[in-house]
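WP5 quarterly update. Target: Pantothenate synthetase. Source organism: Agaricicola taiwanensis. Length: 282 aa.
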Amino acid sequence: MTIPVIAQLDELRSTVAAWRADGQRIALVPTMGALHQGHLDLVRRAGELAERVVVSVFVNPTQFAPTEDFGRYPRDLERDYAALSGTAVSALYAPTAQDMYGPNFSTKISLEGPALGLESITRPHFFAGVALVVTKLFNRCAPDVALFGEKDYQQLKVISRMTKDLDLPVEIIGVPTTREADGLALSSRNVYLSEEERAVAPRLHMALQDLAQVVSRGDPIAAAVAQAREALAAAGFDVDYVEVRDAETLEAVEAHDRPLRVLAAAKLGTTRLIDNIAVPRA
Ligand code: AMP
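Structure tokens (predicted):
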């Protein structure tokens, strides 16, 4: 079956309106393309929650800083189209940047709470860009549900918070992280890793597992975090952050007295990897 590829907003709106008039539920899976199994797992879950699944592919310029990889981010719509064949997808929505952000575009979204710290330390522009594009995609597609990966845990919490705060009529669903057999979280950026870096990369997940175990035992958090940072540096990572946070609000914590999440970002060469896992209940 051929998947409709939609670039025009009026076509997206009329397609979705026809589904809705038929009483069908609509799920949106926003992506930046370079689709891998992690994305396809979101699509599969979306197919369980709605009769119609829209996958958007849009490399969003407003979430990249001038120093980041916007220019070299992998783009291949034909490959993405092929990856989606045989999945629950009903339409692939691929707008252009000119269409998303017209010449006099002047609006920003300002975020606090879960958007503070972590990714924002080195990428202060990032969540404002994500919030903007996600809000626009919600307004364009009008989905009943939208799915986001736990791989980008802070992003998931920022979007959940924003959706509640702004009364956006969309249910946000988080989907567990899809990993390689050795634990490395699937990411479109993994293609940047050299062979040697790829061999080291799973240690990020290992360090988070060790940290989560130690925190779950009730050991002091600050010492456990310092140990994880050391382990990563010894493996060759340039560590951005390793943190233990409240799993819901992402507030800093001092004790294991509620559900917690460990989160980290670290560079291998020029490639920045992020990962996170839940701290098991004590
Ligand atoms: P991206 O194309 O990187 O913007 O990701 C699009 C969506 O896929 C986001 O909601 C990500 O959190 C999600 N995603 C990316 N990698 C994974 C993964 N390994 N497992 C689960 N979800 C993922």
